[in-house]
Amino acid sequence: MSPTKKKTFFSCLIIGVVFLYLIPYMWFGLASFKSQRTLTAIPPVIYTHQLTLHSYHVAFQQKDLLLYLKNSAIVAILATLGSIALGVLAAYPLARLKIRGKNLFLLLFLTVSMFPQMALVGPIWRIMRTLGWLNTYQGLIFPYITLTLPLAVWILVRFFEQLPQEIEEAALVDGCTPLKALWKVILPLAAPGVFTAAILIFIYAWNEFFFALLIMTYPARHTLPVGIALFPGEYTMPWGEIAAASVVATIPLICLVLFCERYIISGLTAGAVKG
Amino acid sequence: MGEGAVKRAAFPYLLLSPAFLFVVTLAFFPIAYSFWLSLHRIVFVLPHLGESFIGLENFARLLQDTRAWQALKFTLLFVGTTTLSELFLGLLLALALHQPIFGRGLIRAIILIPWAIPTVVSSQMWRFLFNDQYGFLNLLFFGNHPELYRAFLAEPISAMVAVMAVDIWKTTPFCALILLAGLQTIPQELYEAAKVDGAGRWRQFVHITLPMLRPTIVLALLFRTLDAFRVFDSIYVMTQGGPADATLVLQFYGYKKMFAEGLLGYGAAISVVIFLFSLVVSIFYLRLIFLKK
């Protein structure tokens, strides 16, 4: 293949791929603005000028979309903060202090990321029931912190290791305690790493379905994914409302991706490339 | 050793302990607990039966369970088909994105969106697109002939193809981005040297790109295989394992047994099987990675 031919081939491929993703999203996004009658027209109506916010109105006012949004935000934000806090405390000694069994600890955290959720969920459900934590925020936040800790530790250790050793030695000579050196010197310098880990953890917690489905069984406690999967319809599937809820759940993620693309990719590939 | 020295030696472990505590109580203990549960008969709605130890009886029953075998077969088909397709298509896409093309950053961000969108959302979206009466795909395939419209998710073969296709659709971009990052670490000089030696593009690809990309490919395969093994969300939303168990996967079957039928011990036995499969897969791939090094 000549260079120009190759370039044309790859450009066509990319344009094709972009359409392969855009068309389904647009079809579904548009569905959130169509009336139920247009939605269920046979054969389907591709476009209509009669767009309406009715589905959003119903989803927010009559159904529990606002509650789902609130639950998701609380769970995802607190899980992110918790996982980052514990992750920083654990990654600091692993990356920068003399510690025996360093590799063993790292391996221990990495092993967790390979555990299938199915093998965890029964016992975790029992633990949460014993504690009376089913249908509570902490009942979901604690498992999320545990399941995202491997990711947090892995990314943070890599970022902490890259900082030169002298920085914190200087701080220690100046009379800082190690904890103060971590807080005042290391953490600000490793801020991009903390940010990267935080975005990935937030996305995980925002999107998680399996644990949320089993721990948050009361409708008032559903997170967005559970709400969207179980959206109640009276006679027919309320496609307009499902689409509206999906748009609401997706917008924060699209913003994150567009503004933080660099961080996300560096986080996703932190293990894969140099690993 | 003075008191200060002891404190200093203990300090790193003190920092580690909260994370360690979480991981032990909510990950390692549950795994062990699952093994324990799998050796017991526990029926949720019959608490008076207690939790009697029955040895390997759950596993013996599992061997006789035709639905479990069907779930295992489809899970293996799902894992094999999706991971290999995602890797192949992802590599093609990564090569395309590696070219200097206009708006590469924006395209990379667009491609990241399918990864970021919740699986539940994209599964609902595809369920809507696959709809038998007003679905976009029926319009695309059969136009204005509603009498020809098909219920894709209600026929075994097309439902199987559909759930696998949706997984490939959603995850190929993720594979592409991982592989692209790997491509970008290959030193350009290698290609220059190969060109001087008169190696064509195909030979460059086979003798430079693929070997240099090998660790990245193996890691991407590891991630994807483990993830495909625990496929649940898309099956739950799109087919509930149907029609006639055609798209039943292990995790969904285990969930059904444990939470819908309340068979905690039997469900735990299924989860132990999933765990052991994951373990074997992990060890296999990790050996591949470390042997080469």
Explain how this protein is built.
The complex is a heterodimer of chains A (275) and B (293). Chain A is an all-alpha fold. Chain A has two domains: 3-31; 64-268, MetI-like (MetI-like fold), CATH 1.10.3720. Chain A contains 13 helices and no strands. Chain B is an all-alpha fold and 293 residues long. Chain B has helices at 3-38, 57-64, 66-98, 104-116, 119-129, 136-142, 156-183, 188-196, 201-229, 233-238, 250-260, 264-292; strands at residues 40-41, 52-53. In chain B, helix 9 packs antiparallel against helix 12. The longest helix of chain B is centred in the N-terminal third of the chain and has 36 residues, at 3-38. Chain B starts with a helix and ends with a helix. Classes of the chains: A mainly alpha (275), B mainly alpha (293). Chains A and B meet through helix 1, helix 4, helix 5, helix 6 and helix 7 of A and helix 1, helix 3, helix 4, helix 5 and helix 6 of B.
